[in-house]
Each structure stands twice: as structure tokens, then as C-alpha cells.
């Protein structure tokens, strides 16, 4: 890898020498604004969203704690609102927001200065770091191009069929090999397609389209089977504690229609939202084919790298419940380094550390919301409002609990969301004489609707890594899918399919 200067001072001087006096003055004026703001008004305009987030957070912290919420929970609630505003508006760089989470916890007494950094370390954080490194290793040996060629041969070269194929592959894979493995397989393919199409600057819409197809594909598929994620297994355990035992096939029968309907919906919506610059990928197929012929068969090092990747995927499927997905991913990376398949300096250069830090902060905030009781208090308030609106049982209760879960899961990981809300909602269902099975499965399903924020799920954080997406892209694309998913959960499953199955 050659060294490239981030900023060349000589080039800057040449531009100033060529530019006229007026242009030089404008440039210097602009520079002085950012280094030394010329006016308070300019600074306020530049940082208005950050100031709004700080103001709302301060207001929440200064007000008395509501009934049922501890002081620590009030502080956690203020942090939660602050982070949401910053993530939605990109008031400051997102990794910087993650750092604020840790500092806030220490200054408000939510965690000690020794405990706060520990909260940033989680198996999911190590997993994201391992996935980004694994992707860099596969790209070094052009393995992603070979897999991309196979996928394109299978789907055809028309962009509509390619996107439908990516969404369908991710959806069906995520239900059985977990969404982590599905994203890991497809991410290098997506990067390869964008790169061979001319890169992000030439095809920005195609880049966003492919990345979001991967992320949203695994979301809609990870709920189709109990093996699709920890949230599903957790809900099975909660239902079992109520003597409600549901089999693997029964779960699939209940949820699979949602996945089947959402595959074409996601494909159609993303294709229309991000109209791709390239309509046919036959040129890319030819370019990959020529590159493969020029490079010849896989080298011994490439075969070893591929074998390590496949071993990691197998480990995720069969051993993640014992060792964790993060430990398994990093074991594969360490093995690759020991075998000299990849240099650590290369991994350090290619890994998007800001993404790792971003998700670490999100995990820490989720733990804080649970430990302080803020998550349970929020759920209780939503349910209280539902009771006031005379929404207390049946289909209306399902709609409320699913909506609450979907909103909360966009600011916490899906597992903690189900852990925090699942017991509450199952108890509410039991007391209101509504099927706990229906409420439980719909809660697990809605916890997958992590369309809106980068921190909502590892899939979003991983596809954000290559730098093709901005935070507002998730909000722009995910807002409609969020509403459609809730509508399908209530209307298609709750009011139609589950009645046919006799669950009501």
C-alpha cells in the first residue's frame, strides 16, 4: 500500500497563488470562520443542533424525577434523548457522540471512571471489529470479487434482479446462520460491485442502494427462524417460563410470511429511493471475469484466508452461544496474522475504528438504560398512555407493544430491548387476557425493525463502515420501511395470518 498525503501544503499554496485577490480573501475569510468564529450568530448557526441536544438534556436532568423513575434513570433518560438528537442530525461526528456517552456517565455518577470504559467493551463490539478486519482480509485476496461473480451469475446482470437477489440472500441466510454471518458474506460483495462500477464518487446512489439492501435484508430475515438472533431465543425462554412452548417450525410458520412479503417491498422501495446510476452490471461481470483470469486460480494464501473465514462462519452457527461471536471472529483474525496471511498494520489501516467506537458507545448507553430502570419506565409510560386511550387488549394492544418495541430498539440493541420490554409486555398480555404468545412473538419481531439509526444493530454499523452512507440515509430509507413493517405486523400477521392459525 502506497502512502498518500492527506493534505499537500504545496498544492494549497499554488491554488492561492493562482487565485485572484477576491477568491483569496473569500478563502481566508472562510478559514477564519472555522478557526476563529467571527460572530456568536455564526457559531450558533453552525452548532444549533448540538445546542438543542444539550438544552433538552439539561432540562431533563434539572427537572424533578417523575414518579417511578430514579434520579439515575432521569440522567440516563437525558443521555438517551441527547444521543438520539445527535444521531439524527449529525450535530457532531458520530464517534465523538460515542465518547460523550462515556464521559457523561462518569460526570453524572452513573458509572465510575474505571467502570465506564468497561461498559464500552462487549462481545458485540469485538464482533464488529473482527468483521471489519475479516472483510479487509477477504478483499486483500480478491475473494469478494469471486463471490460477487457467482452471485451475479445466479441473479443476472440487471440491477433490479441483483438487488432483489441480495435482499433475498441476506434475508434467508440471516434466519439460519445469524445476521452477523450474512452481513459478513455480502459486505465484500457490495464493496466490490461499487468499486468496479467506478467507486462511490461516480455511483453514490448505487453504493447506498447496495449497502442498505444488505442491512435491511438481514433485518427482515433474522426474525424468520429462532436461530436468527439472540432476541428470538430470549423470547422463547420468556414464553417457556409461562409454560408456553413453541417449536422451531411453529415459529417459522408464524413469522415467515412477513419475511416473504418484505423482500420485494424492501427491494422496490430502495430501488426507487436511490435510483442507481448503472442499470446493467454486465460490464462488471466481464471486468471481474477478466481480473480472475489474469490473477489465475486462488493462491495457497487465499485458500487459507477463505478457509479461516468459513471456519469462523461455522463457529458462529454452532459455537457462538458458548464462546460469543466476537471471540470467534477475533480468533480467526489472530490465526490469519500468525500465518502471515495479513499484516496487523494493514488491518489497522483498513479498519474503520470510528464505527467500532460508535457501536461501543451505543452498547454502553443500552446497558445504562436497563440498569437504571429508564428502559422499563419508558415502556410503562407508553403502556399507561395506551390504557388512557382505551387500548388495553387484543389487536390494539399488539399494535402498541410492537410500536414501543420498534421505537426503543432503534436506540438499543435488539437483545437488550427484548430483555427489558419482553417481561413487561408478557405480563400486560396475561393481565389483559390477550395471548402472551402473540404479544411475545410480535415483540421479538418488532425488535428487528432497526431501520432508523446506525447504532440500532450491528448490520447498520457494519455497512456504514465503508463510508458510503450518512446517518440521514438510514432515516430517509428506513422511515417508510419502519411504518410498513409495523403495518404488516398488525394487519397481515396479527389481524389475518395469526387468526387463520387459531392463535387468537
UniProtKB/TrEMBL annotation:
Is Membrane among this UniProt entry's keywords?
yes
Q: How is this protein positioned relative to the membrane?
A: Multi-pass membrane protein
Q: Where are the transmembrane segments?
A: 49-65, 77-104, 124-143, 163-194, 206-228, 248-271, 302-319, 325-344, 356-378, 437-457, 477-498
**Pfam families recorded:** Na_sulph_symp (PF00939)
Tell me, in one coarse class, where this protein mainly resides. membrane
Protease found in the keyword field:
no
Q: Where in the cell is it found?
A: Membrane
Assigned keywords, A-Z: Membrane, Transmembrane, Transmembrane helix
InterPro entries according to UniProt: SLC13A/DASS (IPR001898)
UniProt GO cellular component terms: plasma membrane
> What are the GO BP annotations of this UniProt entry?
carboxylic acid transmembrane transport
Gene Ontology molecular-function annotations: organic anion transmembrane transporter activity
Task: Describe the family membership recorded for this protein in Swiss-Prot or TrEMBL.
Answer: Belongs to the SLC13A/DASS transporter (TC 2.A.47) family. NADC subfamily.
The protein depicted here goes by the name Sodium-dependent dicarboxylate transporter SdcS
